[in-house]
Amino acid sequence: MILKTVRMIALAAATATIALSGFASSAFAEQNARISWSALTTKLEQSGYKIHELDEKHEGWKAEVIDKNNQRLKLYIDRQGNITRQKIDH
Q1: Rounded-to-integer distance, Cα 1 and Cα 78, Å
Q2: Where are the beta strands (DSSP E) in the chain?
Q3: Neighbours of 62 (CB within 10 A)
Q4: Contact between 72 and 65 (Cβ < 8 Å)
Q5: How far is Cα 24 from Cα 14, in angstroms, rounded to an integer?
Q6: Is the pLDDT of residue 87 over 60?
Q7: Fold for domain 37-88?
Q8: Are 63 and 44 a contacting pair, CB within 8 Å?
C-alpha cells in the first residue's frame, strides 16, 4: 500500500515536471522566434523606409534604408522586428 502511494506520487511529480518543461520551452521558443524577411520588409516599408539592404544577423537584422526625410540610416532590428538602434549612414 505504501509502495503504491509512493509510486503514484512519483508519477504525478514526473508528469508535472514534463508538463512544466514543455510550457517553458514553448514560451522560450515563442520569445526567440524570428520575424520573417517578408514580414519585416512589409513593416519597414509601411513605416516609410526605402530598403537598400537587409541582412540577417544572429541577434536579429541590420537594414540600410532611406527614411521619409531622404536620410540614409542603418537600422539594427531585434528578432521580433523592433528597431533597437539606428545610425546615420554616411
Answers
A1: 56
A2: 50-57, 60-66, 72-78, 83-88
A3: 15
A4: yes
A5: 15
A6: yes
A7: Nuclear Transport Factor 2; Chain: A, (3.10.450)
A8: yes
pLDDT per residue as tens digits for the range 24-83: 555 555 566 899 999 999 999 999 999 999 999 989 999 999 999 999 999 999 999 999
Mean pLDDT of 1-28: 59
> Which DSSP helix (H) or strand (E) runs through 22?
helix 2-31
The CA distance from 12 to 14, in Å, is 5
pTM of the model: 0.64
Distance CA 86, CA 75 (A): 4
What percent of the residues of the chain are helix, what percent strand, and what percent coil, each to the nearest 5?
A: 45, 30, 25
How many angstroms separate the CA atoms of 61 and 90, rounded? 19
pLDDT of residue 90: 80
Could you state, in order of their start, the residue ranges of all structural domains in the chain? 1-33, 37-88
pLDDT higher at 59 or 3: 59
